[in-house]
Amino acid sequence: MDDVYTLKPFKDTGKRFLVIARVRDDSLHKEWIKPSKYKNFDLYLEYYGDGGSDFRSDCDFYSEGKETKWPRIYKIIQKYREHIFKYDAVWIPDDDISVDCKTIHNMFKTFMKYELSLAQPALTMDSFYSHKITRQQKKYVLRYTSFIEVMVPIFSNKALQKCWKSFKLSQSGWGLDNIWPKFLAFPNNKIAIIDKTPVKHTRPVGGGTLYQDIQGSSYDELHRIRKQYNVKNLFITYGKVWDKKQAK
């Protein structure tokens, strides 16, 4: 049914949140688990590098496998959905995201406080970015939007169950962030960019191995998925939650 080569399988830990990341040898995930006292999440790593790194000691669950991010995440969920669907929220970042454990801790708390379905942490102003809407605006806790990016999405339990089967539709991931809001019925107060807990995207856009690993064009995938689901790339901000501390 699958080819997830598991070396450190799932078990129930009692944690409410999960981080799933596919990592290569220069992954920044070690930053995510320090300071460890803030770790309110389980960490699943899947290694796809060529250097023989062993990151099993860095995480709670571990596997190895090639292919690209989203089809692989689909297979991981397919194999472990009885465990994964027990978490209240799941974050699926790229491995070139620089952020500490306290920020991730607070990101999950904010996500749950505002009862979000789909979100992402904002990108710091010194990040490499594709879409201006994703850059941090410090005066807000969060902004309710029509869009979050495939780079760092956070799903609620219910949202993940509605969206996960789409992960296999795009090798590059392009187009998936256009259809997830449709799967959630285009809410105007459940999808957000969280400015309070920004992360730094450290690699130039298009600079990873993804574009060498896929067959065909990521633009072709984007247009195919948009056409198939009759969606457009809309960047709408529906509302904002002000950060009172920044206002002082």
Short description:
Helices cover 27% and strands 24% of the residues.
Describe the structure in your own words:
- 27% of the residues lie in helices and 24% in strands.
- It is α/β, with parallel strands linked by helices and 248 residues long.
- It has one domain (5-247): Spore Coat Polysaccharide Biosynthesis Protein SpsA, Chain A (Alpha-Beta Complex).
- Strands 1, 2, 3, 4, 5, 6, 7, 8, 9, 10 and 11 form an eleven-stranded mixed beta sheet that branches.
- α1 (29-32) links the parallel β2 and β3 (41-47).
- It is globular.
- The mean pLDDT is 92.
SSE map:
Blueprint: E1 5-8, E2 17-23, H1 29-32, E3 41-47, E4 61-64, H2 69-84, E5 89-91, E6 97-98, H3 101-113, E7 118-123, E8 140-145, E9 154-156, H4 157-163, H5 176-183, E10 191-201, H6 210-213, H7 218-229, E11 237-242, H8 244-247
Parallel strand pairs: 2-3, 2-5, 3-4, 7-10
Antiparallel strand pairs: 1-4, 5-9, 6-10, 7-9, 8-10, 8-11
Identify low-pLDDT runs: none
Task: Give me the CATH fold name.
Answer: Spore Coat Polysaccharide Biosynthesis Protein SpsA, Chain A
CATH architecture: Alpha-Beta Complex
Helix content: 25-40%
Order of helices and strands: EEHEEHEEHEEEHHEHHEH
Report how far apart the termini are. 56 Å
Residues in β-strands, percent: 15-25%
Strand count: 11
Rg value? 17 Å
Mean pLDDT across the residues is: 92
CATH superfamily (homologous) name = Spore Coat Polysaccharide Biosynthesis Protein SpsA, Chain A
Number of domains: 1
- Assign the CATH class: Alpha Beta
Q: Briefly note the structural class of the backbone.
A: alpha/beta
Could you describe the largest sheet, including whether it forms a barrel? 11 strands, mixed
- Count up the helices: 8
